[in-house]
Amino acid sequence: MNIEEMGKRAKAAAALTANLSTDLKNKVLRDAAGMLLAASGDLIHENQHDREHAQEKGISEGLLDRLTLTDDRIRGMAEGLRQVASLDDPIGNVSEMKRRPNDLLIGKMTVPLGVIGVIYEARPNVTSDVFALCFKTGNVSILKGGSDAINSNRAIVAILRRALKQNGVPVDALQLIEDTSREATREFMHLNRYVDLLIPRGGAGLIAAVVKEATIPVIETGTGNCHVYVDETADLGMAVNIIFNAKTQRIGVCNAEESLLVHRDIAGQLLPKLEEKLKEKKVELRADEAAAKFLTNSVPATEEDWGKEYLDYILSIKTVTSLKEAVDHINRYNTGHSEAIVTTNYEHAQQFLRDVDAAAVYVNASTRFTDGFEFGFGAEIGISTQKLHARGPMGLDALTTYKYIIYGNGQIRS
Amino acid sequence: MNIEEMGKRAKAAAALTANLSTDLKNKVLRDAAGMLLAASGDLIHENQHDREHAQEKGISEGLLDRLTLTDDRIRGMAEGLRQVASLDDPIGNVSEMKRRPNDLLIGKMTVPLGVIGVIYEARPNVTSDVFALCFKTGNVSILKGGSDAINSNRAIVAILRRALKQNGVPVDALQLIEDTSREATREFMHLNRYVDLLIPRGGAGLIAAVVKEATIPVIETGTGNCHVYVDETADLGMAVNIIFNAKTQRIGVCNAEESLLVHRDIAGQLLPKLEEKLKEKKVELRADEAAAKFLTNSVPATEEDWGKEYLDYILSIKTVTSLKEAVDHINRYNTGHSEAIVTTNYEHAQQFLRDVDAAAVYVNASTRFTDGFEFGFGAEIGISTQKLHARGPMGLDALTTYKYIIYGNGQIRS
């Protein structure tokens, strides 16, 4: 099917899914969970084709691992569908209803965005995750998964569409672009007439390519060059704990710490303790000159290090002489993700919260908490590092918009 | 100055304007108002140059009128600045602060978007309007006005920057792109590194061009193909009043009615009365066959009419046999702006509110109320017809975003 036709079908389906009852949406999600489990064998079989092709192409071990479906992973996908079913439905709520001087009642009703396009890499589990979040919010989705996962995705989508069909919901509430050519992807990114939002999910390269090419509005979910700043009044034990956690608890994630800023007055007390602790995980330290003096083992940090998202057991360390210098450095090099201060000073805490420009700004806590589940949203479609529409962890609410509804009794404008 | 350098300066200024006190921001706006009034003579003189060049080029009367500055219009600009000064400052408010199970306190703080680019046509009054809204919300603005107004804009911006300077605010909080070449505009639309949001203000052509070219996120403010649907239970007098108001109170605006839908069962009663009333304004009626039977003077409507924004004394009229047919027609042809039903039936009213996909959906009121002032926002930067970030009339809130602020006491993630 051509891309334009898919857009048309999606738009038509969106008019019908926008106002499905919550009960029906939840039933579809729970049915789909059961059907995925029942089809585990088939899914693993289809996935085997993908893995063979990918191995012939010689993809990396990491990518191959992400591509692989196992019984366990399929159970995880089913569990994800059920979890989304258990969340509150955000659609159709009315808020801020106010009476105007002319007696008009004006309020905001949450509604779906409409048609959401998602472009992602060869990770078949994303297919059911994205469907669940979009469908629960009354949206229709058009998915473009990595070409290496095409057989797996086709099989998963077929099952999800069967769950829609058996509940009387238009199957075009979920469509997969099977044409994995560049031209098809390009056409997809220009489908403004039918697609309301495009979300790229994947590495920095994929995201940059989509932002550059797409004419549809895009939400960037992104990279994290996160800092912890230890000010001169910090509790040292707390600082070491937070840095150890933010840096090493999971290194490959966007909310991990990549850089440490430390006030010069406390560097001599903090750094030796910290180095001792970070040795447990063999963290490489890249330090400026002033910091290096207090470390037994470090390499000199270069300008490039300040802007780097290592996603590895590496930490850059910079000394500063004031809160302002720390904030300026962060606002210059950060990626708008998560930033933390460790302090006991009230005024410093408030200033840091106010002045740092990032999606999530912490006092005395690890940056690792920036996550839809940790924030209590019950789900997450990504972490937005841009400022429009949604910032930070995006839960179901981020997939909704609103319309104004107005109750009148004959008002005309004079 | 080159565009890239302007972006850099804007970004640097934005870090400083983000947290200005409300009192200082208001003082700048009030000072600027006084300074514009004091400089009326100079402004009109500069504007005269623009008008002469424009006349040599042979621009239309309408465009020339929009380009023209008079004492009255300058008073209007000053009044606009003072009005924005009198509005509540939306920046720095914290909402939804919740305690998580691990004792983290997580809330949302409103913050400026950062750097806002605005591309508009040759209307010098927009220059001060946009500055006021952006500055009040702590944002920095880069303006690209129509080349025909360059002398006027340069003079206005010089005054506004003086108001900034005398209050110790970085003058780069407002910058005007003086290079009116296509290349400069193109470069501006790709300044993702420095500009957070681009708002095109002007006709459909300008907006479409910006959406197509820009890689910066764009908010479309737009066109309105607005409908009024009169259902079979409507109060006829109310229906005639609302249609007369929505169609003729001001024809050149995006919230004016362009198309009437009428239930077949009431067409015979409504249309003769309506035709009589619309004669007062010599409104041309373009009707489908069923409607034409009840009209003494109409031309046949074509397919093209259903999608047309006339901005003129023309109304298309279509009969329908059900609420569903009306809603389907609206959702097919509307531009996501404003839609109204006239009815006395409770269930029809609720269904219409729920099922119509538009920024503002009315029961028993004129579509002409879709406006930031009528909605009680006290200001308006445009009416968004898209779904991301802001929908409908955009007041000061639409120029803000939020960050999560998190108060901890040493929490780490396990």
Give the topology.
2 copies of one chain form a homodimer.
Chain A: H1 3-17, H2 22-38, H3 40-57, H4 61-67, H5 71-86, E1 94-99, E2 105-112, E3 115-120, H6 124-136, E4 140-144, H7 150-166, E5 174-176, H8 182-188, E6 197-201, H9 204-213, E7 226-230, H10 236-248, E8 257-263, H11 264-278, E9 284-287, H12 289-292, E10 299-300, H13 303-306, E11 314-320, H14 323-333, E12 338-342, H15 346-355, E13 360-365, E14 382-384, E15 392-394, E16 400-411
Parallel strand pairs in A: 3-4, 3-6, 4-5, 7-8, 7-12, 8-11, 9-10, 9-11, 12-13
Antiparallel strand pairs in A: 1-2, 2-16, 14-15
- Share of residues in helices of chain A: 40-55%
Q: Which architecture of the largest domain in chain A per CATH? A: 3-Layer(aba) Sandwich
Low-confidence stretches of chain A: none
In which order are the strands of the major sheet of chain A placed? 10-9-11-8-7-12-13
How would you name the CATH homologous superfamily of the largest domain in chain A? Aldehyde Dehydrogenase, Chain A, domain 1
Strand segment tally of chain A: 16
**Largest sheet report of chain A:** 7 strands, parallel
Category from helices, strands and their pairing of chain A? alpha/beta
Greatest interface by residues involved:
A-B, 71 and 71 residues
The value of Rg of chain A in angstroms is: 24 Å
What does this structure look like?
Two copies of one chain form a homodimer. Chain A folds into two domains: 3-221 and 393-407, Aldehyde Dehydrogenase, Chain A, domain 1, CATH 3.40.605.10; 226-369, Aldehyde Dehydrogenase, Chain A, domain 2 (3-Layer(aba) Sandwich). By secondary structure, chain A is α/β, with parallel strands linked by helices. Chain A has a seven-stranded parallel β-sheet. In chain A, strands 5-4-3-6 form a four-stranded parallel β-sheet, sandwiched between helices. A three-stranded antiparallel β-sheet of chain A has the order 1-2-16, with no helix packed on it. Helices cover 43% and strands 21% of the residues of chain A. The mean pLDDT of chain A is 95. At the A-B interface, strand 2, helix 10, helix 15, strand 13 and strand 16 of A face strand 2, helix 10, helix 15, strand 13 and strand 16 of B.
